[in-house]
Specification:
The chain is an all-alpha fold. The protein has helices at residues 13-34, 43-66, 68-78, 82-87.
């Protein structure tokens, strides 16, 4: 499941905008970490990354425990035809 901001899931415009910003920040963080550029970031940003990673790990563990991630993966696999599954080695 995608990253999202912490807070009440009220589906308001502000909450949805915060979720979009969180996903964008997480994507940028992934790219920066992949290229070993974390030290170029401000201390405040590095703190956000550490906190976000901890929250993300907890969310993923909860999703795994509830089977949410498995069901999402299965929905994706269900969209593939036999040829696509073979091409992916599935």
């Amino acid at each position: 499941m995608p990253c999202r901001c912490e807070g009440p899931d009220d589906n308001s415009a502000l909450y949805n905008e915060a979720n979009a910003a969180t996903r964008a920040a997480c994507d940028m963080r992934t790219i920066l970490c992949r290229h070993f550029l974390e030290e170029e970031l401000t201390v405040e940003t590095r703190k956000w990354i550490r906190k976000h990673d901890a929250v993300d790990a907890k969310r993923m563990a909860e999703e795994d425990a509830a089977g949410i991630r498995q069901r999402a993966a299965q929905r994706g696999l269900d969209k593939l035809d036999l040829e696509e599954r073979r091409a992916l080695g599935l």
